[in-house]
Amino acid sequence: MIDVNSKLPSVEFQYFAEGEMITATTEELFAGKKVVMFAVPGAFTPTCSNTHLPGYVVNYDKFIAKGIDTVICLSVNDAFVMDAWGKSQNAENIIMLADGGADFTKAIGLEAETGIFGGTRSRRYAMVVDDGMLQVLNVEEPKKFEVSDAETILALL
After folding, report:
1. Among 9, 18, 54, 90, which is disulfide-ready with 107 (CB 3.0 to 4.6 Å)?
2. Domain spans of the chain?
3. Using CA atoms, how far apart are residues 41 and 56, in angstroms rounded to an integer?
């Protein structure tokens, strides 16, 4: 697993912005910015849809007030699914980032094999990144939701 004070690995992601699919690198998303990124096992899944993403949507302005430039939600899903999920959750201010091939998730060592649930997925976590360097990493134990929620991360800023 990636260590705090490490540089994030360089990969390509996809997301939608203003109806257009964007391909962006780690450097483009994180360089020169303070970013909160949280990852979920899957879009449209119960804890992810009922609690995890909504907490960041509701608290988005508080993150900005604390000096965060960007809030990102990552999942090992495709960009179309992430875009539809974001729209269904009123997450217009959050980048709904697709790690479709799990390249980033594997590179940081936070993948989980789920079998029939969708194969390789991300573990649930939240991180604070400053100019591409990992500052905080809160990883949930399997089937838990205690340390990666919006309120916990806000308290750390």
Report:
1. 9
2. 12-156
3. 16
| Residue positions annotated with a catalytic role | 48
**pTM > 0.85:** yes
Report which residue type is found at 19: G
Correct CATH for 12-156 of 3.40.30.10, 3.40.462.10, 3.40.50.1970, 3.40.1010.10:
3.40.30.10
